[in-house]
Write a structure and sequence with these properties.
Blueprint (H helix, E strand, L loop, with lengths): L2 H21 L17 H4 L3 H15 L2 E2 H8 L3 H13 L3 E6 L6 E5 L1 H13 L8 E2 H10 L9 H7 L7 H12 L4 E4 L6 H8 L6 E5 L1 E4 L2 E4 L22 E5 L2 E4 L11 E3 L4 E3 L2 H4 L3 E8 L6 H6 L2 H6 L1 E5 L5 E5 L2 E7 L3 H4 L2 H5 L3 E4 L5 H15 L2 E2 L3 H13 L7 H15 L5 E2 L1 H12 L24
Helix pairs in contact: 1-7, 3-5, 3-6, 16-18, 17-19, 18-19
């Protein structure tokens, strides 16, 4: 790691801490940060040699390339690349193979020395995509577009959750905690709707944010933009951003589930490619990060929770590179945790103290359950036979003491509908079909006391193999 990279890393880390500390005093003000297209190499915030190596690898990988190809490939301006090409030609690493009538109609090819240097650089890092941005620039952008600047009003919640069937005071408590910049934990039985609720909260995150394709930190590249996570916003959503190294995206909502390990929360270095992938919570910056099914990971909950103590306290996270360089990055997310465990079972007072709200998501009451069942029938275009819902309540739920969890209507109707379509019938909710779906879903055989109800249509007998 060279002296320039070390100084840049340390300066950016210091800026990150200072910027995050100052954010709280200016939360009501969202500064307009202009990200202009770089007019020269200095404007990029990148070492000239890094850009030169990027261009060499690009030509080696793609063959003879025009200036227009390089502009499209690396999201740099023609002025920046023209400056780089001049350097490569002077150093006899590349040569002009063709010069057309326009400035961009210039084709380059590598010399033997250029090909040798490009191969050497490619063996160290194969990254050859859009040019990265500096860590310092990234910190400034996250501060300007911080999710902590968002304040959601109750009217926004009522609009977004107009069709939401659940405990609205619970939702109000969750959003109030997030508005305050505090994490929220939803706990309760499996199937109560915790995950659905957490995902739906992400719809409250309005507006577009600039996401860089990658970061340059202490001589290394960290790939940040993820097309599976970062959804493109409208083309004109960020008129103040003309630097194409930043992509206009909706505020991200990232979810990690039972597959999460402590190692996954660090930078992921690929020895074959020679560059890093950002961890999920870093990709979630300026958005929401949901840790689902807390307690079902392959590591002990306490070990995973301890990993969050510093980020939750200081709004920054610290990372290490293979070179030994360390840097801090913003931890700028709405953190939401979802678990089947109770707070007492987590048994981690240090972590629980840092949560803004610990909200229980349990079974629905009968009327909400009825509304949800009707809504699911309407969504699936399924008719309901008179008395069928009362049969579900009094003959299936209550005798078995099965709580009215939010997942059951959709799950039971999906089973009922699939069997109806399999037999070529029009999906209709009847007592018999509910019984069949119930025992198919819960994995128990119907008892003799739950024989086919007398008012069941003749067509339903085929389900019993009659």
């Amino acid at each position: 790691m060279d002296e320039h990279s070390t100084k840049q890393c340390n300066a950016a880390s210091t800026t990150c801490l200072d910027t995050i500390a100052a954010t709280g005093a200016h939360r009501a003000q969202t500064p307009v940060l202009v990200l202009r297209a770089p007019r020269n190499i200095a404007d990029t915030g990148l070492p000239p040699l890094f850009i030169a190596h990027l261009v060499l690898k690009s030509i080696l990988q793609n063959g003879k390339s025009s200036l227009g190809d390089l502009v499209a490939r690396h999201c740099l301006t023609a002025a920046v690349l023209d400056e780089t090409i001049g350097f490569l030609v002077r150093e006899h690493l590349a040569e002009i193979a063709h010069r057309g009538a326009t400035d961009v109609d210039v084709h380059l090819r590598l010399t033997d020395a250029g090909r040798e240097l490009a191969a050497h650089e490619a063996s160290r890092s194969t990254y050859c995509g859009p040019a990265p941005v500096s860590l310092e620039a990234y910190v400034s952008v996250v501060s300007a577009y911080s999710v902590k600047r968002i304040h959601v009003a109750q009217s926004d919640v009522r609009t977004t959750f107009a069709d939401f069937i659940a405990d609205m005071p619970l939702l109000d408590s969750a959003v109030a905690a997030l508005n305050a910049g505090r994490p929220v934990m939803f706990y309760g039985p499996a199937g109560s709707g915790k995950t659905y609720l957490a995902e739906r909260l992400g719809k409250l995150l309005q507006g577009a944010v600039p996401i860089p394709y990658s970061l340059y930190v202490a001589g290394d590249v960290i790939q940040l933009h993820d097309p599976l996570i970062h959804r493109d916003a409208c083309a004109d959503a960020l008129p103040n951003v003309s630097d194409r190294r930043w992509r206009a995206c909706e505020r991200p909502v990232v979810m990690s589930g039972g597959e999460l390990t402590v190692a996954m929360l660090d930078l992921q270095y690929n020895a074959n490619s020679g560059f890093y992938q950002a961890p999920p919570h870093m990709k979630a910056n300026m958005g929401m990060y949901v840790v689902d099914d807390l307690g079902r990971q392959r590591v002990a909950p306490a070990e995973l929770l301890n990993r969050w103590i510093t980020p939750l306290d200081r709004s920054v996270d610290q990372f290490s590179l293979q070179s030994g360089a360390r840097f801090v990055s913003p931890f700028d997310v709405w953190p939401v945790f979802s678990t089947n465990l109770t707070p007492a079972e987590l048994n981690d007072s240090a972590f629980l103290r840092r949560l803004g709200s610990k909200l229980h998501v349990g079974a629905l009451d009968v009327e909400d359950y009825r509304r949800l069942f009707d809504a699911q029938c309407a969504a699936l275009n399924i008719e309901i036979e008179s008395g069928a819902f009362e049969y579900l309540l009094h003959q299936l739920h209550l005798p078995s003491r099965t709580p009215f969890l939010a997942c059951y209507p959709a799950d039971l109707l999906a089973v009922l509908r699939s069997f109806a379509l399999y037999h070529g019938d029009v999906p209709v909710v009847t007592e018999y079909r509910l019984t069949h779906a119930w025992h198919s879903y819960f994995g128990s055989a119907p008892g003799h006391e739950q024989a086919i109800p007398s008012n069941t249509a003749q067509a339903d007998k085929r389900y019993a193999g009659a």
